[in-house]
Write a structure and sequence with these properties.
Elements (H helix, E strand, L loop, with lengths): L20 H16 L3 H12 L4 H8 L3 H22 L5
Helix pairs in contact: 1-4, 2-3, 2-4
Length: 93
Amino acid sequence: MVGRRHEEPLEAAPEPATGSHEDAAITRITVRQQVSRLSEPDRALLHAVYWEDLGGAEASRRLGQAEVTLRVRLHRARRALERPIAHSLGGLG
């Protein structure tokens, strides 16, 4: 589809080329803090997709919602995390 980008799992993101162990720890803490601010259903969805590595059909069965609904919710949850994490980590790197 034109105009759509392929989104990779968090684990596929490359590590920063420069940075310290302290920066990595701050990043992990920041991400956890921001994820904790999401609703419980969104946290469960992120856990299923990124930590348990479930595909769409399996996540759909586990969470009891249609795949298309989960894709929309996943997109919205990522968007909700994007700006606050970028803002919090703006000085790292």
